[in-house]
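Tokens for chain A. Residues wanted.
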């Protein structure tokens, strides 16, 4: 399993309140055809917060089945309940996922010792590689470089981190403390190239749902040493990244995919459709980039 490059945080298509399995399989297949380097089912972009446990497991199972081992599947299996995270992680392993993405517990905001105990307990119950998901804007908790090092050294299953703080100093210090074998992934489409430049391996991306080939090429050109080309792609993607976060993710990306004719536009409450002015701006950007 080689976790590197552009990894898509997959949307979960819905139809009439149910998982749209046909659209989901087609979306995964298109991602692989476009050269994507990995996929994440049931992340934030996949609306994991509003999936029932049964649906969550079904989405992981469909993804593993469709991928057929062609790229790594890193299943979202986190929770602010350690017991629930263990259950989802056990299922992800049984379904054939290559690794799990485990968000830091949100709302209850554990201490550093509590956070280490959370991941240790999951790792003790399930033998599968773990990527920690650090997204302070959603959890109210930040994995500092020192805490990242603790997790890496004290929890054998922890192999890396999805870093969505947007703090490049923090990212660089995580690499400094954890070293080159630690898998450092961007969780912020605005700073893919800067993160790669300080030791990152790739990105778990929202924008690659709509531009998988370009996101893959950005990472590939960097690893080839073509920094000018990588910079050109990163700058080209900035307007798309801004559009994807005009409103709460995944509202804009699902809207974009619907405008591209790839999925039905359906979100789960409390998420609702984009405000008209923002949808008009998104449409203009997609047209300018030749995506619709």
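Reply:
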């Amino acid at each position: 399993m080689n976790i590197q490059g552009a990894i898509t945080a997959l949307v979960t298509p819905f139809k009439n309140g149910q998982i749209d399995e046909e659209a989901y399989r087609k979306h995964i297949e298109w991602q692989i055809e476009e050269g994507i380097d990995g996929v994440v089912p049931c992340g934030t972009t996949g609306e994991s917060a509003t999936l029932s446990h049964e649906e969550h497991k079904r989405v992981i199972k469909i993804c593993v089945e469709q991928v057929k081992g062609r790229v790594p599947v890193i299943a979202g299996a986190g929770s602010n309940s350690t017991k629930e995270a263990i259950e989802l992680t056990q299922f992800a392993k049984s379904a054939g996922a290559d690794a799990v993405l485990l968000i830091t517990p949100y709302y209850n905001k554990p201490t550093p010792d509590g956070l280490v105990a959370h991941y240790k307990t999951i790792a003790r119950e399930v033998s599968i590689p773990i990527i920690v998901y650090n997204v302070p804007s959603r959890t109210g908790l930040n994995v500092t470089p020192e805490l990242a090092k603790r997790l890496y050294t004290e929890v054998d299953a922890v192999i890396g981190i999805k870093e969505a703080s947007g703090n490049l100093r923090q990212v660089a210090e995580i690499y400094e403390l954890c070293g080159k074998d630690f898998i450092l992934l961007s969780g912020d489409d605005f700073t893919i190239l800067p993160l790669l430049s300080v030791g990152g391996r790739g990105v778990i991306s929202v924008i690659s749902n709509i531009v998988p080939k370009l996101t893959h090429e950005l990472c590939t050109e960097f690893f080839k040493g073509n920094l000018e080309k990588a910079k050109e792609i990163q700058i080209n993607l900035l307007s798309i990244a801004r559009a994807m976060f005009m409103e709460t993710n995944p509202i804009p990306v699902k809207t974009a995919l619907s405008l591209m004719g790839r999925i039905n536009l359906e979100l789960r409450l409390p998420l609702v459709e984009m405000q008209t002015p923002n949808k008009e701006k998104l449409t203009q950007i997609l047209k300018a980039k030749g995506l619709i």
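The chain has a mean pLDDT of 97. The domain at 5-224 is CATH 3.20.20.70 (TIM Barrel).
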